[in-house]
Amino acid sequence: MTLPETSETREAVRLTIDGAPVEVRPGATLLEACRQMGTDVPTLCYLETLTPVNVCRICVVEVERNRTLVPACSRIAEEGMVVKTDSDRVRHSRKMILEFLGSSVDLSAAEDEVGEWMRQYQAEPARYGPQSEPTVAGERDRRHPGHHGEVNGRTAEGVHQPTKVDNTLYVRDYSRCILCYKCVEACGIDAQGTYAIAVAGRGFDARISTEMDLPLGDGACVFCGNCIGVCPTGALMFRSEWELRRAELWDPDAQSVTRTVCSYCGVGCNLELHTQDNRIVKVTSPQDHDVTSGHLCIKGRFGYDYVQNLGDVDRSSIDEVLAKARRPAPE
Amino acid sequence: MDLRFTDAQPTAAEREAVESVLGPAGMDSHQRIRTASNLRIFATGMQSVSDRRHLLLPALETVQSEIGWVSEGALMHICRELSVPPAEAWGVATFYSLISVDPSPPVVLHVCDDIVCRRAGALDLMEGLESNGRTPGVRWLPSPCLGQCDRAPAAYIQRAGEEDGVLVSMDPQTRPIGPDGGVISSNGHHPSAAVPQAGEPHLRLLRRVGAVNPRSLDSYLEAGGYRALEAAVEMGPAAVVAEIKASGLRGRGGAAFPAWIKWEAVADSPDPVRYLICNADESEPGTFKDRVLMEDDPFSVIEAMTISGHAIGARQGYLYIRGEYPLATRRLRSAIDQARRAGLLGESTRSGISFDIDLRRGQGAYICGEETALMNSIEGLRGEPRNKPPFPTVSGLFGKPTVINNVETLCNVLDIVTDGGAAFASVGTPQSTGPKLFCLSGSVRRPGTYEVEFGATLGDLIELAGGLPEGRRLRAVLLGGAAGSFVLPDLLEMPLTFEAASEAGVSLGSGVIMAFDQHTDFGDILARIAAFFRDETCGQCVPCRVGTVRVEEALARIRRDPQPGDLELIEDIDLAMRDASICGLGHTAAIALRSALELGLLE
């Protein structure tokens, strides 16, 4: 998101980041300023194409004369600000946030950087004890705000629960959900305008939910898959990817990505076809593409079956799994 | 935006309840908006189609109170009427503990098991409710502090289709609800008991308690009511702000922020649309002072809001009161009605200004006392705090410049306008001016709301409350509420001023003074505080959502079998919550616990 340049906002803003002076456009965030300088700031809930919600707090930086740390993703740079991106306080908060997430959420399918940050900030999620037992399906979705059960401290409570598999296109594995709000934004105000999902419940029991926790097909979802496109942890996943992972056939190293233009209508959305064994296993769109900003519709995202309708010839080992993924969900 | 609703329909009763808030069905419905003539509005996005979104919580609240729970049919009906996406409305409904989205019996009892009530027998009471078999038609749930610590143990009772109420000073050995759903044990409401000082000549904020009929505008007028507004109108807005500045008045809700800075910023705003909010969501455990003001002197709250609205140029005020204060709600509503009828509120009042007040009820969420969460709650969003800046004086309610002040803060405005800011500033100390209310509870003889001039010491306040009961020795005080800290008797000589508290590294918070004697099980109290924050965090940001859980788990380990490193872990979590959380809840969630551990109260 960029601000239009106007006569009132033309003057550049000068600040200091980690001791070095920097000039940024008026209205720029501290994150933009840091990136402009080549300073790494980790982010989880931030995406260039979405309105910053500043909830993961991993991008916090220290700004002089501020009592608390501030989220770089949404704090607007001000003239004369003195910013530290790698102070003890910053490192401590980032480490703790990674530990909080690592001890409560399954991060095994998260973007690669997460693992790197874990090492960089020496996060030890294990120090909170062994993971609590997963909850049964739907239990977390029924929790009422305001009170909770006994806590004995022997395990670290997590969000682990069975994957929601209620359609043939994608699955929702909320054991992997860090509640970054990206899917809600992409579904609603920032991209799709469908508002099929929102955050429900409160506190540690807060979760992404449809109304009444309905299966996706019974609510407002139009299966554009834009929520999958923005999910940083693999909580939302193509059914094909999920099935292949379960069958231990998912192999990113054996995949190639082919950029093409969607053939369904005249808009010209760019597609990235992820193929493995010469089969399309998922479809994305480049986030920096002018037309899509990474978002697609159901046709571009999921309507690729005809491409690989090969009849009886040339079967590969993953076809059976993919065929299963296209069958209706088990009851 | 293309909203999609399920086919569930409301019952006749649900439809009627919704209509009582939103007006006749179809007024602003989704169907109407999608007619051709309105497609242009539609294309402009959320803003235009959901300009009644702010009625979402009142609609949910009304269905809850009339029917006893919010069914799918009722939810869909509200969503169609307000053009709100059902998933978002679900997110809002499931945010509040007083709203049930599951079928509920007609009577729901929210039994306070917070610090003071659990020491007054709440746990026995709950055990009785549980062990003797459940009463049909009645459900009970544990509740955080209900703001009735001066008459513990207490419960808040929701009754479908009937007025809600509060049961106080219950007998722990008696079941509070009979087989017919009727209330058996409650000693009712005794205003004078809440204010042991009532009638004493030195009182300012509390002088009308017991002396003025809180149900009667005439009685308020006879006692000199509305003279301050008259004076304020005569002085003009700028002069009122100047007097507030001269008074040195600082916020009484907990943050102690100078009131004039907010007032001046909004008064000087170029935006002609501004709002005033009275924060009456008094939910800090151990706090009940605002309840006393609202129940026993509601007109002063309304008059003070009117003066503030006049001073900052707001035509609309909102009074956001916690749902668990039914008596205060009824009295304030009646006061607003009477003031409107008398031409003291409304489009053009007899004093020549234009100002009205909308009362909004919270629905069970401590976090909504945080100013920006409160604004989101009014707007029909989840009560999640916003990142600051921008501050409310720049972008507050509905994105407009907004002053938000606590009830007690506003009530001080009356005397400041009448007597002048300088007179107010001459009371107390230079940094902490005026009178101050404190909520005394726990191990004291006469719990209640007490008014002193700033400068009185902690020991003075405990003396005022009659000291500790026979044979009890003061072990510690929880100062400032669950978000405050424990202090030892060595601070009894400390003046209760902002500056002295700050110097001692503590906070006066919302004025809580909770006394504990030598028989206190601090482990139990700390566990309740840790559970409180875990239950009440909104869950939006990671440090607070997970940090409050990890603190509670660490405390459980410490209580069972302390290990080296436990304290360090809590310090680590606390530091991250203080530094990286979005709002004050996370910043303060582990302070009381850490102070107790550091003072050795668990040993």
Q: What is this structure, in a nutshell?
A:
The complex is a heterodimer of chains A (about 325) and B (about 600). By secondary structure, chain A is an alpha+beta fold.
Strand-helix topology:
The complex is a heterodimer of chains A (331) and B (603).
Chain A: E1 13-17, E2 20-24, H1 30-37, E3 60-63, E4 70-71, E5 82-84, H2 88-102, H3 112-120, E6 170-172, H4 182-187, E7 198-200, E8 207-209, H5 226-230, E9 236-238, H6 239-246, E10 255-261, E11 270-276, E12 279-284, H7 298-302, H8 319-325
Parallel strand pairs in A: 1-5
Antiparallel strand pairs in A: 1-2, 3-4, 3-5, 6-9, 7-8, 10-11, 11-12
Helix pairs in contact in A: 6-8
Chain B: H1 12-22, H2 30-33, H3 39-43, H4 46-49, H5 56-67, H6 72-82, H7 86-93, E1 107-112, H8 115-119, H9 122-131, E2 138-143, E3 155-159, E4 165-167, H10 191-194, H11 217-222, H12 227-235, H13 237-247, H14 259-267, E5 275-280, H15 289-296, H16 298-312, E6 316-321, H17 326-341, E7 356-361, H18 371-378, E8 402-406, H19 407-419, H20 421-425, E9 435-442, E10 448-453, H21 458-464, E11 474-479, E12 485-487, H22 498-503, E13 512-517, H23 522-536, H24 542-560, H25 566-580, H26 584-588, H27 591-598
Parallel strand pairs in B: 1-2, 5-6, 5-8, 6-7, 9-13
Antiparallel strand pairs in B: 1-3, 3-4, 9-10, 11-12, 11-13
Helix pairs in contact in B: 1-5, 1-6, 5-6, 12-16, 12-19, 13-14, 13-16, 15-16, 15-17, 16-17, 16-19, 23-24, 24-25
